[in-house]
């Protein structure tokens, strides 16, 4: 897989800022006192797609499998006191590898079971998550479903961007294939094409890059399938990105922002998320930090006005505008948790003094042994050292047997940890040279 640019550099900061003129949101399930017990994570990877008005579930068994397997990349979001709901158990040899490397693993709750004594913590609050929440002894408070649906729409994010951070360069919002074709025909020329975002989507699921003004047959089929489930797409010109950023925060029921942090993310050349990198200091992030903080404040205020509270993440990017670097601070707004949450937890737990780079690889492109112990030996000097917490660690099982049939997951998560950015990128380079086909 070819990256659009070299991987990122993250930065972490925690701060608290009041959001002005925000009414108290309507808290559902708040009649039960909320105790903040250990968590049971629900990695409902279909969250964004499930908010579509005509979502009927994954269109194929392959799509269903992809969504199920995405849950594997959230396992390490929980610590030893937590649990994670998965479609099936994890292989004993994978658990043994985590134990050898002294990574505290959460308990696994195999769906449809729940650990009712934990605090239910979904990736995002869709209808199924809200219903499942009632199975717990102390249901977690959450915003109303319609608020979640509205604030996660790309249309809402685009309107918030225009209102809060100033003019951008949208092409428009379209509800039919003909409207997309008409908008592109009238649009200002874009050197790198355009991006179509389904109203309820994320970069890996529901976005398509349109490389030319005239829609191809493949473009039209993608749009037709999207409009069969969703109400619109948002069009914007594709920018020549220099670096991608993710800002995360927690918006309280009192309208206050907590735990604001920024890290860099890695995308494919077409903008699909594949990784994140965390480091203690970043010149790139330091440069744009004031803009991102202001964006977090005004965005949190806008979300609170809508009655939303809970986890928030928003994507930004620095792009090359004819030789001048510019920041687009609110490219995508997501009223949910973020894809890098497992890597973030480990980085913080390990002290944030080193650099941690988490990357997803396409499994079929890697020539790996079929057991973790042998793989650890083949990593040699780059293998993970549990004492220093540095080196290369394959953080996903090499195989699963969900549904009674053994198979390799399509995406494999790998951690690269070291003293510096240069060190972890060297680890990644050697890993790819050794194992990529």
Report what the structure shows:
The termini are close together. The strands form three sheets. Strands 1, 10, 11, 12, 13, 14, 15, 16 and 17 form a nine-stranded antiparallel β-sheet that branches. The protein has 437 residues and is an alpha+beta fold. Helix content is 29%, strand content 24%.
Provide a short characterization of the protein structure.
This protein is of the alpha+beta class. It is built from 12 helices and 17 strands. The strands form 3 sheets. Strands 1, 10, 11, 12, 13, 14, 15, 16 and 17 form a 9-stranded antiparallel β-sheet that branches. Strands 4-3-2-5 form a 4-stranded parallel β-sheet, with helices on one face. It has a 4-stranded antiparallel β-sheet with strand order 6-9-7-8, sandwiched between helices.
